[in-house]
Amino acid sequence: MNQNIKIRDLEINPNHWYVVARSSEVKTQPLGVTLWNKPIILFRDNQEKIHALEDRCPHRQVKLSHGKIIAGLIECAYHGWQFNALGKCVKIPYLAENQKLPHCQIQNYPVQELDGFIWLFLGENSTQTQPLGIPEWDHLNYIATVSLIHCQAHYSFVIENLMDMYHGHLHQNWQAWTDAVLEKIDESPDQIDVQYQAQSYYKIDKIWSISQLFFPALRQLHPEPLTVSYIYPHWVSTLGKDFKIYCLFCPVSLTETKAYLIHFTSLHSFWRLHKLPIPFRRFLKNKLFGSAQKLLDGLVEQDIKMIEEEQQAYQNNPEQKGYEFNRSLASVQKLILHQASLS
Ligand code: FES
Ligand SMILES: [Fe+2]
Fold first, then answer.
1. Is residue 54 situated within a structural domain?
2. The last residue of a domain, from among 59, 92, 121
C-alpha cells in the first residue's frame, strides 16, 4: 500500500464526537484526559452534569485537573483560584478589595454523557453530528463487558486491526469465530461496512451456554454472518444475533490511541427471562456485567502487542512496504485519508 507513509501521519477529523472516558471514571473529583494532543479536564457540577474545559489554569498554566470540585466549581490546586463550568474565573481567595477578577476565560468544549460514556467534540459545529450511541448499553437483553485498548500507536493501526477479520489466527482458541471469508464491502464518505461469512464457536440459546467459554468441547462450529463497520471514527461488529461489539475511539496523539471495546452478549433467546419483573432483569444485567472480562482483556493484550510492533516498525523504517490481501483495509485507508482532508 503506497499510502502507508501518509496514513500513519494523518490528523483526525475533529468534527465528530469522540469518547474520552467512561461515565464511571468521572465521580466527585475532576479527571484529566487527552484527546488529540489537547489536555482536557472533565468534572461534574452540583447537578452531576458533566463539563469539559481546557486542562490549564490561566494563572500559572498548571493543570486544573490537580484541583478539586468545590460546590460545583473547579478550584486550582496551586493558589485556589476557582472557575465555573463555562471556564470563567469567579474567585481568587486572596484578592484585595481594590483588585478585580481577571477576564481570563478557559476554553470549554461541547460534551455529552450518553450510554455509559463521555463524548467530546473538538470541532466547529457540534450540533451538526450526533454521538454514535449504544442502544444495547441500557437494554435489559444485553450483557456488557468493557475493556480498554491503550496502545502506543497511530489510530489507523488500531482500526485496521479491528477491520481485518483474517487475524483470528492470533487469538486461536479465544476467538469466537474462525474461517472468515470476506464477501462484500460497502463504502460511503463516512462509513465502511464489510460482510464476512464465518464459523462461530458459540451459540447463546441455552442457560448453560456460558459453559462453552470454559469447556471448548461443548462448542459446535456453525456458520454465522460476521459484519464489521467503520463508522468514522468508531467501529461496530456483529457475529450472528448473539454478539455485538463496539470500539469507541479516543486518539490521544499521532503515536498513542485509547479505545473502549464494549462487548455485548444478547439474552434475546431466553424468552422466559423477558417475562420476569424488570428490577430483577436489571439486577441480572448488572450482576453479569463484565462476565467476558478475562476473555476480552486477553484478546486486547494480544492485539496491542501486534499493533505497537507495527507502529515501531513504521517509525524505524517508514519507507518499508508491506503486502496486504484483505481488500477492506484499502477502503479503511481511503476513508481515513478522506476524513483527515476535512480537518
Ligand atoms: S496556578 Fe492555578 S491558581 Fe495559581
Ligand atoms: Fe484481535
1. yes
2. 121
What is the distance in A from the centroid of ligand 1 to the CA of 63? 9
CA of 304 to the centre of ligand 2 (A): 9
Q: 281: CA distance to ligand 2 center in Å?
A: 31
Question: pLDDT value at position 212?
Answer: 65
Tally of domains in the chain: 2
Q: What is the pTM of this model?
A: 0.93
Boundaries of domain holding 95: 17-121
Edge to edge, the sheet with strand 73-75 lists 68-70, 73-75, 82-83, 89-91
Query: Using only C-alpha atoms, what is the Rg of the chain?
Result: 23
Residues contacting ligand 1 via CB (< 6 Å): 57, 59-60, 62, 76, 78-79, 81
pLDDT digits (tens, 9 = 90+) for 177-203: 888 999 999 999 899 999 999 988 777
Please name the residue whose Cα sits nearest to atom 3 of ligand 1.
Answer: 79
DSSP string, 210-257: GGGGT-GGG---EEEEEEEEEETTEEEEEETTTEEEEEEEEEEETTEE
Give mean pLDDT, residues 203-223: 69
